[in-house]
């Protein structure tokens, strides 16, 4: 079996209902992510936490030094788990994520987090492009409604479209329950 690594993307306070960018289903996604993190820790699967921070001190979202950028307590890292701070959508861009995965011998990644249509999407595609087999736990990810050209797309449809794209060409998409049952 290949060495797996769990990447937990941007499960930060900013996405909670009290934040400036609340996501549909974020509490359920974080609860599922917490279950997966606990399982990874029990099985000695390395966990890599990604935390987004804006570069501008006056940014309306992910403002550095505010509680909004803190990782949600339910999925908080423990000693020894790296927290990789990123300033871009892609968790690999201008970070040492790849080096940290390689240093831990990770050959396959499991991805959970937020937002499905942005940071999760970018990480899934980049990881697959780098040759990592990817598994996305769809119910441990969350997103929000999007609008384009006067049309509002409900979060559930945004999420489903992304998960379908991942499954079509980037990796395996499964539920938390199915993943934990293996």
Automatic annotation (TrEMBL):
The name this protein goes by in its record: Putative isochorismatase-like protein
Alphabetized Pfam families for the sequence: Isochorismatase
One function term, GO molecular function aspect: hydrolase activity
Residues annotated as domain Isochorismatase-like: 6-154
Entry-linked Gene3D superfamilies: Isochorismatase-like
InterPro entries per record: Isochorismatase-like_dom (IPR000868), Isochorismatase-like_hydrls (IPR050272), Isochorismatase-like_sf (IPR036380)
Alphabetical keyword list: Hydrolase
